[in-house]
Design a protein that fits this description.
This protein is 49% helix and 8% strand. It starts with 13 loop residues before the first helix and ends with a strand. α5 crosses α12. It contains 17 helices and 10 strands. The strands form 3 sheets. It has a 5-stranded mixed β-sheet, sandwiched between helices. It has a 3-stranded antiparallel β-sheet with strand order 4-10-9. Strands 6-7 form a two-stranded antiparallel sheet. It has a single domain (16-405), classed as Cytochrome P450 (Cytochrome p450, Orthogonal Bundle), CATH 1.10.630. It has 406 residues and is α+β, with helices and mostly antiparallel strands.
């Protein structure tokens, strides 16, 4: 599917997917907003605009708190997709105030900074164990052996999901997240619906068990959470919250890990500097998330007409904010195409902004720092075996795998 006109932006082109950043530079040079016919979206590539729009109340992740599908000029999803939409639409990422405010407030009571900080020794110990196994094997797939199992185990531990039940979590998440790509296929939708049904069924049983036998875990905390009005999460809101925490809580971390190490391997001078000075890990985590952004695009509906640089975008339209482009905007980042692990002024948007700022950002930073330190300490000669293959996805940017030797 080719883009209109002569724009280089083509999210289905393998050449673009391998390196979208030159196309983003062209978009920024050519204007602040661009109509993209294949997805019927307005593309916004500049950091200042993306940052402002993430806080703009005339935009929303949903429109159903104000309009029916018909009133908004949209077609309702097919009935056979209902399990996915029930699961997705009750999570706070896809809600607007007042529902978003209420759910985020209640989730925050269970997902506290103290809860996250208490996990730090577990995260660091697990990272060391995973890397030790990789070293003992003489290498392997950094994605399969370290990047994936670490955040999945951490969020499962938080939720109180027994180790024996964890195998389907990553496949369920991958199938559900397929629906966030541009123009997903019917087969993608079928897989997402099946995963939604299975994951919902599992969590419904887990919640029932925790109601009868509460523990020191996030599910028990969500059940117990209430505010001064004795407002509580519904069961569906709890289920959707758990799925959101798993999906968002590990997809970004998994892809940041492998994208980051692939970037380091392509920038040996920066990798050498990091190996020589492990105190760079915190700034390296931020810079690697900026340099090759794990979530490239974030969508919002236009609830009331909005104007960008003289272009009126009408109610009912959809805006696609290009996080990857915003994170490479030279108006904000000096020499943005250069990987600089010492970069201190780094207002990247990889965790979003505004009311939908990632609630799991502190946990993601702990996980990324833990795996980076473990690899630096225990696999100081880590090197790629071959050039990794990139997944054929645009929105969620990652690799098929990352073969390494130690």
């Amino acid at each position: 599917m080719a883009p209109p006109g002569d724009l280089a932006f083509d999210p289905w082109d393998p050449v673009f997917l391998a390196d979208p950043y030159p196309a983003y530079a062209e978009l920024r040079e050519r204007g602040r907003v661009h109509w993209f016919e294949p997805t019927n979206q307005w593309l916004v590539p500049h950091h200042a605009d993306v940052s402002a729009l993430l806080r703009e109340r005339r935009l929303g992740r949903t429109y159903q708190h104000r309009f029916t599908h018909e009133e908004f000029g949209r077609t309702a999803p097919p009935p056979e997709h209902e399990p996915f939409h029930t699961l997705n639409d009750h999570g706070m990422l896809d809600l607007e105030p007042p529902d978003h405010t209420r759910i985020r407030r209640l989730v925050s009571k269970a997902f506290t900074p103290r809860t996250v900080e208490r996990l730090k020794p577990y995260v660091e110990g697990l990272a060391r164990d995973l890397v030790a196994a990789l070293v003992d094997a003489g290498g392997g797939d950094l994605l399969r052996d370290v990047a994936e199992p670490l955040p999945v185990a951490v969020i499962a531990e938080m939720l109180g999901i027994p180790e024996s039940d964890r195998a389907p979590l990553r496949p369920w998440s991958a199938d559900i997240c397929g629906m966030y790509e541009l123009n997903p296929s019917q087969e993608t939708a079928k897989r997402a619906v099946r995963a939604s049904v299975e994951f919902t069924g599992y969590l419904r049983e887990l919640i029932a068990h925790r109601r009868a036998h509460p523990g020191d875990d996030l599910v028990s905390g969500l059940i117990a959470a209430h505010d001064e009005d004795d407002d509580r999460l519904t069961e569906q809101e709890m289920i959707s919250t758990c799925v959101l925490l798993l999906n968002a809580g590990h997809e970004a971390t998994v892809n940041s890990t492998v994208n980051g190490w692939a970037a380091l391997f392509h920038n040996p001078g920066q990798l050498a500097a990091l190996r020589a000075d492990h105190s760079l890990v915190p700034s390296a985590v931020e810079e690697l998330m900026r340099y090759d952004t794990p979530l490239q695009l974030f969508e919002r509906w236009v609830l009331d007409d909005i104007e960008i640089d003289g272009t009126v975008i009408p109610r009912g339209a959809e805006i696609a904010m290009l996080f990857g482009s915003a994170n490479h905007d030279p108006a904000v980042f000096t020499d943005p195409a250069r990987l600089d692990l010492t970069r201190t002024d780094n207002p990247h948007l990889s965790f979003s902004a505004g009311i939908h700022y990632c609630i799991g950002a502190p946990l993601a930073r702990i996980e990324l720092a833990a795996s980076t330190r473990a690899l630096l300490e225990r696999a100081p000669a880590l090197a790629p075996v071959e050039e990794p293959k990139r997944k054929p996805n645009f929105v969620i940017r990652g690799l098929e795998g990352l073969a390494v030797e130690v």
